[in-house]
Amino acid sequence: MKYLIKYFIDFTVLVFLYAFVFFKRWKTQGRGSLLINTLMYAYLSLVLYFTMMPVVVSIPSMLDHPYKSMNLVPFIDVSLGRGDFLRQVFLNVVMTLPFGFLFPLTRDKRAKFGVTVFFCFLMSLGIELLQPFFDRSSDITDLITNVVGGALGYGLYVIFKPVTFWILERLKTR
Questions:
Q1: Mapping DSSP to helix (H, G, I), strand (E, B) and coil, where does residue 139 land?
Q2: Cβ–Cβ under 8 Å, residues 103 and 111
Q3: What's the CA gap between 167 and 171, in Å, rounded?
Q4: 173 exposure class (CB count in 10 Å sphere: 0-12, 13-18, 19+)
Q5: CA-based Rg of the chain, rounded to a whole angstrom?
Q6: Under a CB-based contact definition with an 8 Å cutoff, are residues 18 and 27 in contact?
């Protein structure tokens, strides 16, 4: 129960941020923008949940343990056959697919492949650099596979772009 309260606090903060900061701003930009930005916010909240939560209650003690340095040998678990490396690689790719798809939509058609992959890299790097402060491990393989997932997500964006923009145009006319 005590463990669930920690997550409840984080999700409460995220809901308040959405309701009192972002929702008002996005609502004025139209239904399509509200939908896309809300989806991106929900997605990023889930990424936060799976990679770093609980955050708020961990802040006072985040410097109370030694910083574990990042594993800088790419795919060492794969090459040594340690653990469930295929599952980890797959999950890291899948985790950032939505970023690659949604990020260009939040940028009003301005985000190109390189920009999307660069921001996916920055998000993943930020996560990997912050995870040790929350007593989690950090790995270069995660960074690489997250960027691959973002690139594949952008590919899905390109494939489904006509359908996506058709749906967003229909939202404007309602």
A1: strand
A2: yes
A3: 6
A4: exposed
A5: 18
A6: no
